[in-house]
Amino acid sequence: MTINDNPHPLPAPDTKEELRQALLDITAWENSQKDLWFWEKLGRLPFQLLDRLTPKALQNKLAQAIDEVGSFVQTGGQYLISEQSVLDQLNRQLASRPDAPVPVLADALTLGEVASLPLAFMDGAADEFARSRTLFATAQGATTGFGGIFTLAIDIPAILGLSLKVLQEMAMVYGYDPNDKRERVFVIKCLQFASSDIVGKKAVLEELADFDNEHRQRDAISQLQGWREVVMIYRDNFGWKKLFQLVPVAGMIFGAVLNRSTLQDVAEAGKMLYRKRRVLERLRSS
């Protein structure tokens, strides 16, 4: 079904002025990411402890999980998610508008049509996914924090997987399909941005500035052939946050708080970077 055939027309598109204002908001957010906290320089210390104290069996399990996360770039693997939950959430956003008939676009909205939705509906769905995934990460951090250093080795690949999940949801909310390998590259770049210091964030923003250019896409894919390095940087850069989670039982509190913070950062980065991409595409085509 095409948009024109739909008996319930989509809301009016964003105006140029609304798009320009959205771009200003995104630019302000990018500028706010430039603060570098001293403790980020200590990111590798907890993992030096992990290398020394974690049993070999758990180290192997951790390495295997990181390999699986990295393979997401090539095939998606077990981390690819269904688009239906995203479409359902967007339908709920549409149904909540004051002039919406009931039911609205029930079982009719497709991922192709999502790209035409006004930003307000995309943003609403993105915020809802960020909220729900952050709550889940908080509970997960409390659970894995209970066992201290041993369950921490399980928590790291788990939070990586959850991060990939929420970033894919952000992609679909803004009308991009993570089944496409190019979009999975963008997902990993969002993950890299969320965990990087000021220098890394600047580099990622430069790489994504013209991502939809075919030549730039090939460059980005080429850069991610060494995807394991990207994943390891992510692991190391949030390592300091996990330092206090090494303590059994007390690690529940730290695990909950720090996993919540990690998912909030990832979800925010995904939302803003995909939002910027959609805004720029609309401004170019208007």
The chain-level mean pLDDT equals 76
Unreliable spans: 1-5, 101-106
**Cα distance spanning the termini:** 24 Å
User: What does the main sheet amount to?
Assistant: none
Q: Specify the structural class.
A: mainly alpha
Strand fraction band? under 5%
Please count the helical segments.
Answer: 13
- Estimate the helix proportion, in percent: 55-70%
- How would you spell out the order of helices and strands? HHHHHHHHHHHHH
CA radius of gyration = 20 Å
State the total count of DSSP E strands.
0
Description:
By secondary structure, the protein is mainly alpha-helical. It contains 13 helices and no strands. The chain has helices at 16-32, 45-53, 56-70, 72-75, 84-95, 111-114, 119-145, 149-173, 181-195, 198-208, 214-223, 227-237, 251-285. The chain is globular and about 55 Å long. 34% of the residues are buried.
How do you describe this structure in short?
By secondary structure, the protein is an all-alpha fold. 68% of the residues lie in helices and 0% in strands.
